[in-house]
Design a protein that fits this description.
Layout lengths: L1 H48 L7 H23 L4 H18 L1 H16 L7 E4 L2 E8 L3 E5 L5 E5 H6 L2 E3 L5 E10 L5 H11 L12 E7 L4 E10 L3 H18 L16
Antiparallel strand pairs: 1-2, 1-5, 2-3, 3-4, 6-8, 7-8
Helix pairs in contact: 1-2, 6-7
Length: about 270
């Protein structure tokens, strides 16, 4: 009977420990996960209604998610009787050690925060960053995502984005299309300019500022001309290709020769 009483006491003590520690720990975890999910859903809706760029949403949600899970872990650990103060002190030391080993990753995160604050571009802008051009899709915790015109997805580290020259082609709303073309010395400059102005009459070209054409250089084999027109940023490539196509037609209609490099040799008798 004494042995049975000891077993009963042991079972009772274990059950008490489970009820006093493990059960609250489990309840806190379950409630914590539900609360975090609710908070993240509320945050997502708040971000959608805010004026903040969509490219920054994922970065903010990722940072909030990490902080909430760390707090949940500390609260749950305290319910198991673990000294949270010691964990925090140990975490501080580990954080310092980890920060030294993952310095580049932390630099990228800081770069992402810098991009959110300075706002050099927003989601949907066509930009050029570190010799890469594309439409901004997302600013993540570590990388900024660009989609190129040929539908390639490029990941650029945020640290590189912050330190690089950023050219935003969309922010002003308009872009200038510059087209260089050459014509024979035999062609009248007046006729060539007239043909260029005619070629500028394509859909999407703005009338203010008006199209501009001029002689830009006298080359070895031909005279070089420049045609400049303004258009909406989103219409840049459509206008660029349409004008190039029309220049060939207007030159042909005007009898203007589009030259190629050649050399004239004169022999003296």
């Amino acid at each position: 009977m004494e042995f049975i009483d000891k077993i009963a006491d042991w079972i009772w003590s274990v059950s008490t420990a489970v009820v006093e520690r493990v059960l609250p720990f489990t309840l806190i975890l379950v409630a914590g996960f539900l609360i975090i999910k609710l908070v993240l859903n509320i945050l997502s809706k708040a971000l959608e209604k805010s004026g903040l760029e969509k490219a920054a949403h994922s970065l903010i949600k990722s940072l909030v998610r990490v902080v909430l899970y760390l707090l949940l872990g500390l609260i749950a650990a305290s319910k198991l009787g673990i000294d949270v103060t010691g964990i925090i002190a140990l975490a501080s030391v580990l954080t310092l050690a980890v920060s030294l080993s993952v310095q580049n990753a932390l630099t990228n995160v800081i770069g992402g925060i810098t991009l959110l604050y300075t706002k050099p571009f927003k989601s949907g802008d066509f930009v050029e960053i570190a010799a890469e051009s594309g439409t901004v899709e997302e600013i993540g915790m570590s990388y900024t995502k660009l989609v190129t015109p040929d539908n390639k997805l490029i990941y650029i580290p945020n640290s590189a984005v912050v330190s690089a020259d950023i050219v935003n082609y969309t922010v002003t709303g308009t872009r200038r299309v510059d087209i260089a073309i050459s014509a024979s010395y035999n062609a009248s400059s007046e006729n060539v300019l007239k043909a260029l102005y005619e070629a500028a009459k394509v859909p999407g070209v703005m009338t203010d500022p008006a199209p501009f054409a001029a002689v830009s250089k006298y080359g070895d084999s031909a005279i070089e001309y420049t045609l400049r027109v303004w258009t909406k940023a989103e219409s840049y490539w459509d206008v660029h290709f349409a004008i190039n196509q029309k220049i060939r037609d207007t030159f042909a209609n005007g009898g203007i020769e589009m030259t190629y490099p050649h050399l004239n040799v004169h022999l003296d008798k």
